[in-house]
Amino acid sequence: MNKAIFPGSFDPPTNGHLNVIQRAACIFDELLVVIAVNQDKGYLFDSRKREEIMKEMTRDMPNVSVHLWDRLIVDFCVEKNVRLMLRGVRALADFNYEFELSMINRQLNENIETLFIPTDQKYFVLRSSAIKELAQLGGDFSRMVPPPVERALNEKFGGYFRET
Ligand code: ADP
């Protein structure tokens, strides 16, 4: 069976992440989305909330499952017997970081391969950090995130202001 994982912080997930998940779900028999749990990182949403949101976003995708993981991502691959790790890339700056990360993961376990999926140009400038900032400042982020994320951000920050 052709399996891959898509790991990330997803704090919160964006339409860019969702696009990568949808495309990957068409390529692989099984896609495991892995939400990183790192006690040292100051997440906006705790891991349970990120898991709940991601499960809701992928509810209609029968070959996609969502997992939480607080150890090395290559260890998750070993435990689940998966050899492919997907990472999305936007600009060249992403690629530098992702390339280094793939080198590190390869040193940790050379049986795991990283595959890069280029972003769809619609999501070229979408990043979770910008969405959090927009939400905090009362900007309209509704076209950048799936509905469960929009609801979660509105709950946290009390909604955004629409121009009438
Ligand atoms: P991390 O903290 O591990 O980088 P992120 O949640 O920021 O996790 O991102 C997870 C993956 O999704 C990364 O490979 C990142 O480059 C990719 N990604 C983030 N935003 C987009 C986007 N708009 N289009 C395509 N890929 C994206």
Span of the ends, CA to CA: 51 Å
**Computed CA radius of gyration, to the nearest angstrom:** 16 Å
Q: Given the C-alpha coordinates, what overall shape results?
A: globular
Unreliable spans are none
Tally of DSSP helical segments: 6
Cofactors, ions, other ligands: adenosine-5'-diphosphate
Q: Strands of the largest sheet, in order across it? A: 1-2-3
Feature tags:
single chain; 164 residues; alpha/beta; three-stranded parallel beta sheet; two-stranded parallel ribbon; 6 helices; 5 strands; 42% helix; binds adenosine-5'-diphosphate
Task: Set down the secondary structure blueprint.
Elements (H helix, E strand, L loop, with lengths): L2 E6 L6 H13 L2 E7 L10 H11 L6 E6 L3 H8 L3 E6 L2 H17 L4 E6 L9 H9 L10 H11 L7
Parallel strand pairs: 1-2, 2-3, 4-5
Helix pairs in contact: 2-6
The structure holds adenosine-5'-diphosphate (ADP).
